[in-house]
Design goal:
mainly alpha; 7 helices; about 160 residues
Length: about 160
């Protein structure tokens, strides 16, 4: 039963990235299977499974520090481009009014310059929404990528458990 458990853990680890599990990656679970049960059908499948490209949530999270880059990591280029564009426009909506306000600092008036504050606050709200949804979408993209890789492997190996 242990070889089967190691085999399934090898597929489960890339989408989990939980702290405290006994192994860092699914590759370690596959390597343990190969070491403990060499020559078995599961060990042969594990060796082949080690070559399957999977994505990691930690890497997607790191890339998601800037909205859209996590989408590039999981292969969602159109979605990533849109999110990067929204982030850049939002940053401009904060920076440009701040610069204009700084230039007018000697004679800022609420009646004339309130749109600067509204634009900046709006840019911050849109940027925070874009950041949050981009992060969540990248995490979901990792799971979907790995599920597709798992399904493709299983389709190619009808005997895989």
């Amino acid at each position: 039963m242990r070889p089967l458990t190691l085999y399934r853990l090898g597929w489960a680890y890339p989408s989990s990235d939980l702290i405290g599990l006994p192994r860092e990656t699914g590759l370690e679970a596959f390597a343990a299977l190969v070491a403990e049960a060499p020559g078995t059908p599961l060990a042969l499948l594990a060796r082949e499974a080690e070559t399957v490209a999977v994505k990691r949530k930690r890497i997607a999270a790191a890339w998601s520090a800037f909205p859209g880059l996590g989408q590039f990591y999981v292969g969602q280029y159109g979605n990533g481009t849109l999110r990067v564009g929204i982030a850049l426009v939002s940053i401009a909506a904060v920076a440009v009014p701040a610069y204009i306000g700084y230039q007018r600092r000697a004679n800022l008036t609420w009646q004339r310059d309130w749109p600067l504050l509204v634009a900046s606050v709006s840019g911050l709200i849109v940027l925070s929404f874009d950041y949050t949804t981009s992060y969540e979408d990248a995490m979901r993209g990792v799971v979907q990528w790995n599920e597709r890789a798992d399904a493709a492997f299983e389709d190619a190996h009808a005997d895989a458990p």
